[in-house]
Write a structure and sequence with these properties.
It is a single chain. This protein has 14 helices and ten strands. It is an alpha/beta fold. Strand 6 and strand 7 form a beta hairpin. Helix 2 packs across helix 3, helix 6 packs across helix 9 and helix 11 runs parallel beside helix 12. The chain is globular and about 80 Å long.
Amino acid sequence: MTTGQGGVPAATEAEAERLRRWRMVLGGGEADGTGCALNTADSGMDRALETVYGADGSGGGDRSGGGSRGGGLGASAPQVSRWLGDIRTYFPSPVVQVMQRDAIDRLGLSSLLLEPEMLEAVEPDVHLVGTLLSLRAALSETSRESARAVVRKVVAELERRLAARTRAALTGALDRSAKVDRPRHRDIDWNRTIRANLKNYLPEQGTVVPERLVGYGRAARSVRKDVVLCVDQSGSMASSVVHAAVFGAVLASMRTVDTRLVVFDTGVVDLTDELDDPVDVLFGTQLGGGTDINRALAYCQSRISRPSETVVVLISDLYEGGIRGEMLGRVAAMKDAGVQFVTLLALSDEGAPSYDRDHAAALAALGAPAFACTPDHFPEVMAAAIEKRPIPVPGDRGSGGL
């Protein structure tokens, strides 16, 4: 028989660990059946979980079997501060972010985020940024500065993660989109060259004689592509708005791309002049409200001067409050004029979003694919749109992309 630490049989250790895990899951009530006692660290972890995930579903309830001990944070800022410190002690950062989000949703802690000391204690993430943006009208001047610091930290991390990949993908796409017929050897596009010369195949030699070479051109220093990001700022799109602001800033930093960022609900706001600082972009949004996609597309359409060199990316769940027929008509008109049109139902790391399936199917029928997209996949989508090749829909799930 194998033994574990301290000479305890390994099977017994495994069983004890299994019972410990079930005890943490079941909460320690009389009927949990584990008979397992918790050590000091596990007890602290259990209390932190009890605060949000108590048996009554609202952060209270009895997980210990010891009577009517309740959880919850009430409206006590010191209690919240202690809890935030506890969860950062017991859990890794991704779990902390989930627990913070659940505490805000289940316990109604949004009002406590208006206090600067709370903002300094939380673990920043994209969802917290969305919450802060929705509360920004209620922020005091001091809280606003603390909130901007939280937002800037999240934005900086996203830029670090996404900027280099985005620039690399788009620079390559821009280079490849300019073809020349007399390229230097290192600039030859061999795949296209072979396809262009298949008629010159010599069976006896087993080779193709390339009469015409197709190559990559050098990207011009002047602007060569126009990109319009049209972003739905309704409350359900908070994560997408954050990522779109970061990508907009990255695209705006590229001299070969002319980027416009438009956000909308029932109104339309052009935030292009703010693109040098994505934090300013985010504080210029107004999460919540209705949705008028048709009105937003009308504005974007009016700003297009080079249709064949323009990519429009609509980021929306497609729950349209405007005129459906006109919305689809505008997309069709832009497509007919040569605009590359892409619809992202979400730009986030979350699961499948809720969206209007009828509108997604109608856009797909117009040749404007509609699908959800993670931030890591977005550079590939933009590169394909710039090169005017089929958009790589994640998972290859067909119309709707989900």
